[in-house]
């Protein structure tokens, strides 16, 4: 039995014990300052900042800057610790993927607990029915009363502005909730569907939510709820624990539930609790839950925003409106946030780490389940979402086209522009090996392939389309289309020398180097599946331990 | 000028080199290859008791990764060794005496200066530092690669004397017995009369970085016809006369030899990377005299593995040459930097340039294809990208370049590139992409335009996200001031904002 952490607070303790966290008692402002500190920490591979005192904050909420950012080069390490994976999984990308896929294959049904024992109900605040969005009440399905037998006071003043939502980049259009899990109804299951969507705060009870058609939950909203003139009940949660956050980053097929995959990740059932104002169930340990409805035929500005591309995309676009019905939270909640776009080039924020550590293993498993024999599928670390590297063979002519086609027409439609296929011996997380494969094995004459010319949908967050081309289409995709491509960088047996000596000698060499203090030798190696240094350098031990609060 | 042992001292002083004893049970080349694969520190291996017996006074200490060694594609990792900043050109830049944290283009320009023709000679002759003698080449204790029978030396300097002066070239080879060396030298040198049987030539190991870098630069640009006394390196590196030609006076090991034979090259011959660009030839040399410094230390590199020193020297030398050429062509110097990452083994070229006018990026990329046959892929990025951020430059090829408008492939009737495995450098064919008609002598060329479209108005240009551009200066200053109070390491703050400092 492992001892995976199940709550966000336990996760912070794991980081603290690893010397990977710093608690900042000095008051900071949500107005760019917390984000600036976080970006600087991201850029320098520093500790993860926990802002214990945030100015202008009526709830004494605390901010945590990019808590899921892993150490550079081992972006999966913090999740590996959180899920208590065996040590090789902390050092090697291929080993981590193997272990996480094993967890994903052993899903567990969640359990439902009483509201009175749910940490996320320590404080319950609902908005009075008469205060709720007028247009929403005409269409919505929100319950009229808070029906909790709550263990704490129930107030009637749920107010988004009481929380210190960070203003992240000075070019942003507003303040954002970024590291979220949006819980929505699931007509095919009882646990609801989870997905990550950022929200731009517009006032006490309204936010715009980034809903891009092509993704499952936005599709439900645009093509079912809105067409029926109904509001979609949702709950936007923050700080729901690493398994929940990781599962929200995954593309889980229709008919399955992120909650069961999250249970597999942590090897124990996710505890859910009913919402106050709708029929959804949310992770009980969440730091904060915003209950509400995505209103039909209502839009608010969203963006500009410094996005995962490393650029501020614009212009402002219209996105669906989240009307707030209730907010429940823990006492002095921790609000994790992501400084998107920071450190692009060298994956170094929560999104990039979660893409590597959650989306990648999930995609690998999904492709195998679909019958494709892939060794690993992982995002290219320089871009987070735009390019993926897939290690595989070419079992028959046209196999790579078919594989790319499958992904482009399913989960990879919006964000991914290109796949790079490499030998199955190449670790997709080894950027040197991937650059080498592109430089030496991808022939411009025969190996660069496009799926037609500008016939494919594209997420409007991109920066290579003009604002006119992006437009502000009703369902959130660009007005203009784009192209999708794949690159065949398989070597056909012509891969240059990667190592010399036999495996035993190389192991001996790495041990000697580790003893001498040479950096990096305990990290993953290029060759997939190779053993790792017996001397497991505890680099974390070299970090200074700072006095930390123990009683979260 | 930096003596090689001084160069090592600097690397130690900047916490960039680790020392270990030479293992008895593992080839130094394997140890060095694993260190390179880790992309970590340079290493120094002190003599130990190896398979060939106890060390002698002339047994060399070995150093690897001293001219490159950094895997830039992975970015800076403070978790590996906190606050050790380094780039692929850092160690060579230190060796060239530029700075502890040399700017990339300063390294390129220093390299170019070593190869420049000089109108007047300004050579310094000093006493030879290597004054101990060895009777037998095997006493040097040079390392034997795995699965090979003979010890190998690499990163050597060949000097050939003449009435006009001395000619330097890179050399490497194997020690066949106590007196005999099978060596690889540039074909352009071997083809000359000076290397007739019986000619005296000298090998120097552990030479100053300026001298070694100059040999690689001159070899890959086929400029070995001019005595080094007439080039920048001749005025930079103090020398001593030997039976062959002059060699750097601080050389750790000097071997005076006589050409015994000239042999045909074979495909099985291991090659240093400069041979991939200029061709090599095989010679048999007989040792006449061996001199070493006390406790000699020499660089060596495993051959053919990623990120090896010979590869990095070739990459930087070719980058410098191309950088100079493209900035000397149009009457203006639009190119900020040009980089052939060692990670791509010279099969990929990145160039950051001002786009002078619409279509200039096409002109630039295709000029580069004309100037070098190594690569068939060029990535053009804006000058706001720093050469220190390879990840960002590569990232721009995906996020800034439109996948259907800005990835431009030529017809497959261009000469094949030398470095890719499917091209003419693949050594005997068998690559996957023999083009239609079976003619592998032609291929296509790709350039990626990851610059902003000059037709775009300012409102179309997306601002970058970075510490410097996402926060006002007062706030950045406040964060810097409070950095240690926040619980971060003082040294790490020095690198914040580095990403945006394209001007270095």
Describe the structure.
The complex is a heterodimer of chains A (552) and B (504). With 552 residues, chain A is of the alpha+beta class. Chain A has 14 helices and 24 strands. In chain A, the strands form 5 sheets. In chain A, strands 5, 6, 7, 8, 9, 10, 11, 12, 15 and 18 form a 10-stranded mixed beta sheet that branches. Chain A has a 5-stranded mixed beta sheet with strand order 20-21-22-24-23, sandwiched between helices. Chain A has a 4-stranded mixed beta sheet with strand order 1-2-3-19. In chain A, helix 8 (242-248) packs across helix 9. The radius of gyration of chain A is 23 Å and the shape is globular. The model of chain A is unreliable at 144-152 and 529-551 (pLDDT under 50). Chain B has 504 residues and is α+β, with helices and mostly antiparallel strands. In chain B, the strands form 5 sheets. A 6-stranded antiparallel barrel of chain B has the order 5-6-7-12-11-8. Chain B has a 5-stranded mixed beta sheet with strand order 14-15-16-20-17, sandwiched between helices. In chain B, strand 15 (349-353), helix 10 (360-371) and strand 16 form a beta-alpha-beta unit. In chain B, helix 4 crosses helix 6, helix 4 (104-115) crosses helix 9 (309-326) and helix 6 crosses helix 9. Chain B is globular, with a radius of gyration of 24 Å. The chains are: A alpha+beta (552), B alpha+beta (504). Chains A and B meet through strand 1, helix 2, strand 17, helix 12 and helix 14 of A and strand 1, helix 2, helix 11 and helix 13 of B.
* CATH class identity of the largest domain in chain A: Mainly Beta
Tally of distinct domains of chain B: 3
As a percent range, the share of helical residues of chain A equals: 10-25%
Euclidean distance between termini CA atoms of chain B: 24 Å
Helix/sheet category of chain B = alpha+beta
Number of strands of chain B: 20
CATH-wise, what's the superfamily of the largest domain in chain A?
Electron Transport, Fmn-binding Protein, Chain A
- CATH 2nd-level architecture of the largest domain in chain A: Roll
Question: In this structure, how is the largest beta sheet of chain B organized?
Answer: 6 strands, antiparallel, barrel
Q: Assign the structural class of chain A, choosing from mainly alpha, mainly beta, alpha/beta, alpha+beta, or little secondary structure.
A: alpha+beta
């Amino acid at each position: 039995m492992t001892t995976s952490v199940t709550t966000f607070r336990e996760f912070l303790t794991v980081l603290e014990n690893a010397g990977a966290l710093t608690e900042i008692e000095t008051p900071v402002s949500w107005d760019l300052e917390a984000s600036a500190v976080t970006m600087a920490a991201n850029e320098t591979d520093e500790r993860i900042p926990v802002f214990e005192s945030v100015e202008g904050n009526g709830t004494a909420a605390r901010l945590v800057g990019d808590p899921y950012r892993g150490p550079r080069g081992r972006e999966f390490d913090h999740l590996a610790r959180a899920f208590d994976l065996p040590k090789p999984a902390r050092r090697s990308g291929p080993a981590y993927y193997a272990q996480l896929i094993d967890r994903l294959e052993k899903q567990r049904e969640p359990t439902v607990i009483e509201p009175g024992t749910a940490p996320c109900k320590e404080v319950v605040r609902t908005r009075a029915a008469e205060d709720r969005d007028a247009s929403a009440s005409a269409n919505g399905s929100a319950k009229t009363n808070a029906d909790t037998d709550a263990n704490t006071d129930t107030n009637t003043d749920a107010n988004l502005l009481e929380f210190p939502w960070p203003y992240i980049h000075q070019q942003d259009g507003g303040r954002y909730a970024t590291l979220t899990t949006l819980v929505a109804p699931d007509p095919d299951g009882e646990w609801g569907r989870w997905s990550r969507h950022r929200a731009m705060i517009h006032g006490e009870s309204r936010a715009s939510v980034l809903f891009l058609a092509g993704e499952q939950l936005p599709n439900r909203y645009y093509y079912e709820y809105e067409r029926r003139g109904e509001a979609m009940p949702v709950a936007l949660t923050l700080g729901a624990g690493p398994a929940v956050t990781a599962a929200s980053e995954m593309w889980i097929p229709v008919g399955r539930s992120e909650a069961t995959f999250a249970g597999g990740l942590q090897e124990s059932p996710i505890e859910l609790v009913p919402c106050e104002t709708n029929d959804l169930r949310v992770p009980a340990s969440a730091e904060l839950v915003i209950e509400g409805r995505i209103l039909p035929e209502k839009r608010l500005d969203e963006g500009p925003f410094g996005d995962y591309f490393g650029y501020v995309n614009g212009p402002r676009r219209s996105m669906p409106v989240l009307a707030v019905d209730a907010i429940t939270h823990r006492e002095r909640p921790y609000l994790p946030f992501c400084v998107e776009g920071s450190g692009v080039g060298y994956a170094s924020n929560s999104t990039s780490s979660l893409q590597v550590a959650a989306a990648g293993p999930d995609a690998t498993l999904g492709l195998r389940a679909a019958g494709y024999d892939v060794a690993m599928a992982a995002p290219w670390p320089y871009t987070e979402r735009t390019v993926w590297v897939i290690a595989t063979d070419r079992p028959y002519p046209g196999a790579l086209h078919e594989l790319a086609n499958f992904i482009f027409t399913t989960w990879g439609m919006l964000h991914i522009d290109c796949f790079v296929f490499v030998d199955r011996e190449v670790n997709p997380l080894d950027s040197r090996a991937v650059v080498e494969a592109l430089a030496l094995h991808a022939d411009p004459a025969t190996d660069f392939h496009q799926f037609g010319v500008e016939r494919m949908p594209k997420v409007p967050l991109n920066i290579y389309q003009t604002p006119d081309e992006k437009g502000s289409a009703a369902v959130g995709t660009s007005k203009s289309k784009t192209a999708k491509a794949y690159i065949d960088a398989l070597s056909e047996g012509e891969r240059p020398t990667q190592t010399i000596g036999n495996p035993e000698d190389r192991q001996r060499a790495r041990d000697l180097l580790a003893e001498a203090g040479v950096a990096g030798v305990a990290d993953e190696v290029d060759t997939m599946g190779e053993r790792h240094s017996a001397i497991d350098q505890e680099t974390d031990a070299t970090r200074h331990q700072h006095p930390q609060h123990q009683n979260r | 000028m930096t003596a090689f042992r001084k160069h090592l001292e600097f690397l130690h002083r900047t916490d960039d080199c680790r020392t270990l004893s030479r293992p008895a049970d593992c080839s130094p080349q394997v140890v060095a290859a694993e260190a390179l694969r880790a992309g970590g520190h340079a290493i120094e291996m002190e003599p130990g008791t190896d398979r060939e017996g106890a060390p002698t006074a002339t047994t060399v200490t070995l150093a690897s990764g001293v001219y490159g060694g950094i895997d830039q594609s992975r970015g800076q990792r403070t978790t590996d060794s906190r606050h050790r900043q380094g780039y692929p050109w850092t160690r060579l830049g230190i060796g060239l005496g530029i700075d502890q944290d040399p700017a990339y283009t300063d390294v390129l320009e220093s390299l170019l200066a070593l190869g420049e023709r000089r109108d007047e000679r300004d050579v310094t002759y000093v006493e030879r530092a290597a004054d101990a003698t060895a009777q037998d080449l095997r006493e040097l204790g040079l390392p034997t690669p795995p699965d090979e029978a003979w010890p190998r030396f690499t990163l050597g300097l060949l000097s050939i004397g003449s009435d006009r002066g001395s000619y330097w070239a890179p050399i490497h080879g194997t020690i066949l017995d106590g007196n005999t060396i099978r060596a690889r030298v540039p074909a352009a040198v071997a083809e000359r009369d000076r290397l007739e049987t019986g000619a005296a030539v000298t090998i120097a190991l552990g030479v100053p970085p300026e001298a070694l870098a100059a040999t690689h630069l001159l070899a890959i640009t086929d400029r070995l016809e001019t005595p080094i006394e007439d080039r920048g390196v001749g005025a930079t590196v103090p020398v001593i006369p030997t039976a062959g030609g002059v060699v750097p006076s601080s050389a750790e090991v000097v071997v005076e030899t006589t050409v015994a034979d000239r042999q045909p090259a074979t495909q099985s011959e291991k090659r240093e990377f400069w041979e991939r660009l200029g061709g090599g030839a095989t010679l048999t040399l007989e040792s006449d005299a061996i001199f070493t410094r006390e406790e000699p230390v020499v660089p060596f590199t495993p051959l053919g593995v990623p990120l090896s020193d010979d590869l990095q020297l070739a990459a930087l030398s070719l980058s410098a040459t191309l950088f100079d050429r493209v900035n000397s062509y149009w009457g203006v110097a639009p190119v900020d930097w040009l980089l052939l990452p060692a990670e791509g083994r010279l099969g990929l070229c990145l160039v950051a340039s001002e786009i002078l006018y619409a279509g200039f990026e096409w002109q630039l990329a295709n000029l580069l294809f004309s100037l070098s046959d190594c690569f068939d892929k060029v990535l053009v990025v804006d000058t706001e990208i720093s050469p220190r951020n390879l990840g960002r430059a590569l990232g721009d090829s995906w996020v800034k370049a439109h996948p259907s408008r800005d990835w431009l492939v030529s017809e497959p009737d261009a000469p094949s590139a030398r470095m890719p495995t499917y091209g003419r450098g693949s050594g005997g064919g068998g690559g996957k992409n023999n083009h239609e008609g079976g003619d592998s002598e032609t291929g296509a060329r790709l350039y990626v335009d990851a610059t902003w479209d000059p037709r775009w108005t300012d409102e179309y240009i997306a601002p970058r996200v970075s510490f410097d551009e996402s926060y006002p200066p007062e706030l950045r200053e406040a964060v810097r001031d409070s950095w240690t109070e926040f619980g971060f390491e003082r040294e790490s703050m020095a690198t914040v904002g580095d990403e945006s400092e394209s001007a270095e």
